[in-house]
Design a protein that fits this description.
Blueprint lengths: L2 H12 L11 H21 L2 H32 L6 H4 L2 H10 L4 E3 L3 H7 L4 E2 L6 H13 L3 E5 L9 H7 L3 E6 L2 E5 L7
Parallel strand pairs: 1-2, 1-3
Antiparallel strand pairs: 3-5, 4-5
């Protein structure tokens, strides 16, 4: 009874971009499943042979469909990986660049969890706002700290787009790959 208000409060007070997805409904789905099981068991004792047979066939069909879907998902997971563990992220040339050339420079990214997951190094997020002043200030801060920005081609809805970042931050592209770009301080002027 307090779950839905807690989700709504989190949306409004803690994390605006927070999305309501199926995982958030899992406690309610578990309660509904238990309620169905108890109701079906109670009904089963008083139902006739044909209604019980019908329910058994439906439950078996549901179970078989669930097994097929689960088998497919498990196969995909073990073969290619899912989400951030997929081959596309795991073998990212952007992350390889950081391993080879990034040293211990401060990192920023439109997917800050990826460097942490694969490089054991924290990365800060890029700005959420795409206004020009914010992007210029961000670029100046990155340049002042000799940081790098890992811009993956797949945009993160919580942050400004990669193209906006490249265009508005004043940083130059240090490396470009099919899966993204690495931005850093513009070259020092010749003296």
């Amino acid at each position: 009874s307090s779950y839905a208000p807690a989700l709504i409060a989190a949306r409004f007070f803690a994390d605006g971009p927070f999305t309501f997805d199926a995982r958030l409904m899992s406690p309610l789905l578990m309660i509904a499943s238990l309620a169905f099981a108890v109701s079906a068991a109670t009904w089963w004792r008083s139902a006739g042979r044909w209604p019980r047979t019908g329910l058994a066939v439906l439950l078996l069909a549901w179970g078989a469909a669930s097994l097929v879907a689960t088998r497919s998902r498990v196969h995909e997971s073990l073969t290619y990986g899912l989400d951030f563990s997929s081959d596309a992220w795991r073998g990212s040339p952007v992350l390889e660049w950081v391993r080879a050339d990034g040293g211990r420079r401060p990192m920023y990214s439109n997917w800050p969890s990826l460097p942490y997951l694969y490089l054991d190094r924290p990365a800060r997020g890029v700005p959420a706002s795409g206004d020009a002043a914010t992007l210029r200030a961000f670029g100046a801060g990155v340049a002042a700290g000799d940081g790098v920005v890992l811009v993956f081609r797949v945009d993160n809805p919580a942050f400004v787009t990669g193209d906006s970042l490249v265009a508005g931050s004043g940083l130059r592209v240090l490396a470009s790959f099919p899966g993204g770009r690495v931005l850093g301080r513009a070259a020092e002027p010749a003296r």
